[in-house]
């Protein structure tokens, strides 16, 4: 067997490269999905904080300050629309529902936080 070439053929190398390419594309897709999930989780956390902040303000100021309304807040370049509705009889415990919505490249998202404000 003298003179016989040792090593890989071009076909074997191309097959190996194709397998590596598929693996790298799968990793790239996974990376993009992870970045999207992280971004969404961060924005959901910010929206939840904004909702709790509004409820705490109502609880701190008392029932006299509990009126329906809305406002827009920008945090780190992301705009959040915060609105709240109030139900119940003035002077008694009232149900406040705070909604926080935002848009990003993946769509429009919202959270809703119901809370009872007591006298």
Task: Sum this structure up briefly.
The protein is an alpha+beta fold. The protein is 44% helix and 33% strand.
Task: Explain what you see.
- The protein is an alpha+beta fold.
- Helices cover 44% and strands 33% of the residues.
- It has one helix and four strands, in the order αββββ.
- A four-stranded antiparallel sheet has the order 1-2-3-4, covered by helices on one side.
- A hairpin with a 2-residue loop joins strand 1 (69-75) and strand 2 (78-87).
- The N and C termini lie far apart (97 Å).
Instruction: Estimate what percentage of residues fall within beta strands.
Output: 25-35%
Structural class: alpha+beta
Overall pLDDT score = 90
Shape: rod-shaped
User: What is the CA-atom radius of gyration, in angstroms?
Assistant: 27 Å
Count the DSSP helices.
1
What pattern of helices and strands is seen along the backbone? Answer: HEEEE
The major sheet is characterized as: 4 strands, antiparallel
* Low-pLDDT regions: none
Distance from first to last alpha carbon: 97 Å
Cross-sheet strand order for the largest sheet: 1-2-3-4
Share of helix, binned: 40-55%
Kindly state the number of beta strands. 4
């Amino acid at each position: 067997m003298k003179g016989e070439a040792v090593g890989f053929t071009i076909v074997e190398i191309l097959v190996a490269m194709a397998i590596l390419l598929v693996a790298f594309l799968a990793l790239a897709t996974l990376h993009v999905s992870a970045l999207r999930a992280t971004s969404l989780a961060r924005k959901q956390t910010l929206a939840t904080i904004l909702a709790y902040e509004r409820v705490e303000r109502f609880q701190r100021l008392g029932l006299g300050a509990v009126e329906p309304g809305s406002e827009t807040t920008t945090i780190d370049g992301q705009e959040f629309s915060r609105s709240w509705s109030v139900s119940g009889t003035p002077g008694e415990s009232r149900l406040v529902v705070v909604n926080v919505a935002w848009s990003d490249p993946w769509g429009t998202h919202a959270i809703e936080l119901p809370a009872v404000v007591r006298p």
